[in-house]
Design a protein that fits this description.
Elements (H helix, E strand, L loop, with lengths): L12 H33 L8 H12 L1 H5 L9 H18 L2 H19 L2 H6 L1 H5 L9 H25 L4 E4 L2 E4 L2 E4 L7 H17 L4 H32 L2 H10 L1 H19 L9
Helix pairs in contact: 4-5, 8-10, 9-10, 9-12, 10-11, 10-12
């Protein structure tokens, strides 16, 4: 079932479109202003989500890159999109009443899809599916999920890092998340788990996969490959801390830790570029 726009086509649509857009914007502000404020506070205070402000900008850029194809698509408003709008409102109510902030974030995604479907139609919504869905990377996870994931990543990272450091001649003894060196001890805290770089690189890998030619398989492989790439890059960082601590001092290792955060992402990004180059489809040789 679609909206009847025949009568509207006979009127000047400029003012009508602006009035509709203004009303929708006002309603979104009324419904999601608290969610937006909490999300901004999370981005600016939690390092795991510090990439959040860039996500909507990347989504807008991806939609802009596809603007020529979007212009050729018909705009056909569809009432079925209102079902998603209603679902989004229900998620928002449950999230606010139950104090589950993650539901409020998912509500925003459902609302974006529903409004696109209701006002622009199914063709536009399919074309905008990835730019809208990509905004999931700016949302937060429930705390218990983050805690479990952080601990698991930290455990794996410490094991790999200790193995690498011992291979480089470091004498160490591991007890849980504490590394005993000849010059002192290193405590591997939650920020060293690599969760921050993993979330950031997953978002980057999703963009790479979206732009990757060659079909579904290389795209999925590129996205999934971001996980081991991020973990290996972080393990190299922690191993570097152990090497510096062994051959110099724990104090210098601490300074190295503060300076090496961006290097982790740079190394992981290079690994992602390398993986992308491997997965690019090769041009076939012309037959003689």
């Amino acid at each position: 079932m679609t909206l009847d726009t025949t009568a509207l086509e006979r009127r000047p649509l400029g003012l009508l479109v602006w009035v509709q857009a203004g009303l929708v914007a006002a309603l979104l502000v009324a419904v999601y202003h608290r969610t937006a404020a909490t999300l901004w506070m999370t981005w600016t205070t939690n390092d795991n989500y510090s990439h959040g402000p860039l996500v909507p900008l990347v989504s807008a850029w991806l939609a802009w890159m596809d603007r020529e194809r979007l212009r050729r698509l018909p705009v056909a408003a569809d009432n079925r999109g209102l079902v998603l709008v209603a679902l989004a409102c229900g998620l928002q109510v449950f999230g606010m009443r139950g104090d589950v902030f993650a539901l409020e974030g998912y509500s925003w995604l459902a609302m974006a899809y529903g409004l696109s479907w209701a006002f622009l139609g199914a063709a536009w919504t399919r074309a905008l599916a990835f730019p809208i869905g990509f905004m999931a990377f700016m949302l937060t996870f429930p705390p218990f999920v983050m805690n479990q994931l952080s601990f698991a990543l930290k455990e794996i990272t410490v094991r790999i890092s200790a193995w690498l450091a011992e291979g480089l001649g470091v004498t160490l003894q591991r007890s849980g998340m504490i590394i005993y060196l000849l010059t002192g001890e290193l405590r591997i805290e939650n920020p060293c788990s690599g969760l921050r770089s993993l979330l950031t690189l997953l978002a980057t890998g999703a963009v790479f996969a979206y732009l990757q030619p060659g079909g579904v398989v290389p795209r999925v492989a590129l996205l999934l490959g971001a996980v081991p790439v991020a973990m290996i890059a972080n393990a190299l960082r922690i191993a570097g801390l152990m090497v510096v601590g062994h051959f110099h001092s724990v104090e210098k290792a601490t300074r190295f830790h503060d300076l090496s955060g961006y290097a982790v992402y740079a190394i992981a990004l290079c690994g992602l570029f390398g993986l992308r180059a491997v997965l690019l489809p090769r041009a076939r040789e012309p037959q003689s």
